[in-house]
């Protein structure tokens, strides 16, 4: 297959993840990077052999050069997607764009419009659409095995320490600097549920709040930082326990530890916790995003779906139950338990075995690692690899069919998220119109 050349905007955790997989399969080659952090930029350029003149301090400098690659990966932080996406679409790059597309509907619509105007392929990184597990669930529904889908129950178990890392102490803790948590975290789940039902909901409601990680919940003797806190050993959200525990494990050192410090020693971690944001008491941060939220959706035929996102869980694969007229499915992100109402028989489908080869061949390149775990460090159950393989296959062939959604489909599922947020804030049921 033709090798696709790539520019990467944002040489952070996600940019690296996609670049590494593209190189590993040989389907893509990074030829340019835009990254303001000099250390990250130099390391990125060295790892992928990017020439000095193609290593830029930011996306604007990259956009000022001629088009340097077939496609660009945009993996900057949430509020810095729109301007690079529009500018680079105007230069004719195909785009792999991190989610969320943008913090609001107006900007996301600008991005989709730029993709249409320039006739480029733009895939939003909804990695869950690309897992072998998702393929298996979709096939089950499409085959009619459980009849008509009447309702669904879906859980996103964020995980107590993941909530503390990303949504209390980390980048995604505030709506004004990132996005509401439903957009930052669960736009994946809403996108996935719309994908399963095959259409957007007709009506949406939602409830949720920040109930725990607040000053009111702070124990009287807690210190502002874990390293000074007498309660640290017994606190579930101890930063030293979490981050010192990453040392020695390459996967945990990549994520979550590299968001905290580039150091890989006990001293470097403790120093980051003494001075940096990740050492703060979870009850003394400037966070405002929710720690639990429900979304209830009703579809045009009366089918319903309830979705729960919660911090107060282990960090695990999502759980889903599907209730059909002729059968029932209970999925844990890897295995599906299928009960057939016609026979009463049960089948266990192990999608880690089921999917890997089929996913790889449907994506056209590489091998989706169906056994990978749920987290970003683990590649989202094969979704990261599946997405990159599909995107590179689409760009190489000029045929978008390996992509499981285009810019307008992603815009539509983001709009469901904004409808749910509107419902939560106003305490109302919002009628969803698929077109703005
Ligand atoms: N698809 C997924 O499952 C998934 C998982 C995690 C994060 N994300 C999303 O990926 C995005 C990136 O997250 P991350 O964890 O890699 O963040 P990160 O902070 O590690 O990386 C972002 C990088 O962008 C760089 N940057 C800042 N300004 C820039 C500019 N002007 N030009 C070029 N680069 C610039 C930063 O220096 C940083 O290195 C976010 O939008 C996040 O929500 C998606």
Please tell me about this protein's structure.
- By secondary structure, the chain is of the alpha/beta class.
- It has helices at about 15-25, 40-50, 60-65, 80-90, 105-120, 130-140, 160-170, 180-185, 185-195, 240-245, 250-260, 265-275, 350-365, 385-395, 405-425; strands at about 5-10, 30-35, 55, 70-75, 95, 120-125, 150-155, 205-210, 290-300, 305-310, 320-325, 325-330, 335-340, 345-350, 430.
- The strands form 2 sheets. It has a 9-stranded mixed beta sheet with strand order 14-13-12-11-7-10-9-8-15. It has a 6-stranded parallel beta sheet with strand order 3-2-1-4-5-6, sandwiched between helices.
- The longest helix has 20 residues, at about 405-425.
- Residues about 355-370 have low confidence and may be disordered.
- The structure holds nicotinamide-adenine-dinucleotide (NAD).
- Nicotinamide-adenine-dinucleotide binds near residues 9, 11, 37, 76 and 77.
Keywords summarizing the entry:
single chain; 436 residues; alpha/beta; 9-stranded mixed beta sheet; 6-stranded parallel beta sheet; 15 helices; 37% helix; binds nicotinamide-adenine-dinucleotide
């Amino acid at each position: 297959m033709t090798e696709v050349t790539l520019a990467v905007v944002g040489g952070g955790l996600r940019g690296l993840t996609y670049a590494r997989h593209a190189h590993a399969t040989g389907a893509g080659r990074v030829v340019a990077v835009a990254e303001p952090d000099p250390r990250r930029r130099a390391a990125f350029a060295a790892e992928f052999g990017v020439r000095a003149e193609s290593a830029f301090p930011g996306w604007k400098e990259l956009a000022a050069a001629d088009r340097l690659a077939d496609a660009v990966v945009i993996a900057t932080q949430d509020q810095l997607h729109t301007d690079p996406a529009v500018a680079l679409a105007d230069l004719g790059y195909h785009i792999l764009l991190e989610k969320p597309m943008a913090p609001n509907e107006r900007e996301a619509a600008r991005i989709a419009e730029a993709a249409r105007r320039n006739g480029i392929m733009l895939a939003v990184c909804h990695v869950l659409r690309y897992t072998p597990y998702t393929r298996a669930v979709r096939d089950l529904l499409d085959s009619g095995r459980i009849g008509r889908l009447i309702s669904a129950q879906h859980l996103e178990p964020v995980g107590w320490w993941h909530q503390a890392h990303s949504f209390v102490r980390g980048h995604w803790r505030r709506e004004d600097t990132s996005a509401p948590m439903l957009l930052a975290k669960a736009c994946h789940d809403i996108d996935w549920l719309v994908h399963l039902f095959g259409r957007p909901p007709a009506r949406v409601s939602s409830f949720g709040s920040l109930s725990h990680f607040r000053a009111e919940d702070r124990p009287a003797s807690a210190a502002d930082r874990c390293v000074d806190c007498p309660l640290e050993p017994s606190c579930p959200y101890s930063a030293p326990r979490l981050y010192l525990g990453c040392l020695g494990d390459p996967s945990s050192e990549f994520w979550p530890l590299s968001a905290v410090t580039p150091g890989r020693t006990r001293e470097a971690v403790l120093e980051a916790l003494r001075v940096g944001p990740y050492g703060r008491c979870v009850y003394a941060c400037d966070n405002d995003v929710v720690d639990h939220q429900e979304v209830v959706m009703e579809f045009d035929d009366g089918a319903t779906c309830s979705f729960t996102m919660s911090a107060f869980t282990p960090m695990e694969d999502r759980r889903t139950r599907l209730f059909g007229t002729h059968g029932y499915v209970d999925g844990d992100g890897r295995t599906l338990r299928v009960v057939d109402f016609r026979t009463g028989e049960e089948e266990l489908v192990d999608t880690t075995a089921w999917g890997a080869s089929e996913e790889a061949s449907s994506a056209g390149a590489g091998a989706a690692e169906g056994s990978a775990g749920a987290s970003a460090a683990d590649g989202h159950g094969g979704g990261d690899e599946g997405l990159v393989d599909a995107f590179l296959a689409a760009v190489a062939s000029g045929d978008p069919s390996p992509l499981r959604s285009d810019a307008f489909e992603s815009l539509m599922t983001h709009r469901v998220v904004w409808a749910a947020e509107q419902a939560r804030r106003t305490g109302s049921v919002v009628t969803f119109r698929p077109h703005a």
